[in-house]
Give the backbone structure.
Amino acid sequence: MLRVPGVTGVPISAEEVTDLLNWMIVKFYPDRSDFEPFNIEEILFGRTNPLYDPLKVRRELFPDL
């Protein structure tokens, strides 16, 4: 989720993004017992390392698509 363009770059605090993402997982995927909550450091890392070219990354991950 952190790599989806725009997620970490929203104009709210890193703490609010962390809370929002964790809430979304708990709310929409309540059976995910393996979920490790996001933390603020992950959000801050995402903000300093944005995904500029998602199509390029997709081609690299799934070359046969």
Summary: The chain has a mean pLDDT of 91. Residues 14-28 form the longest helix (15 residues). The radius of gyration is 13 Å.
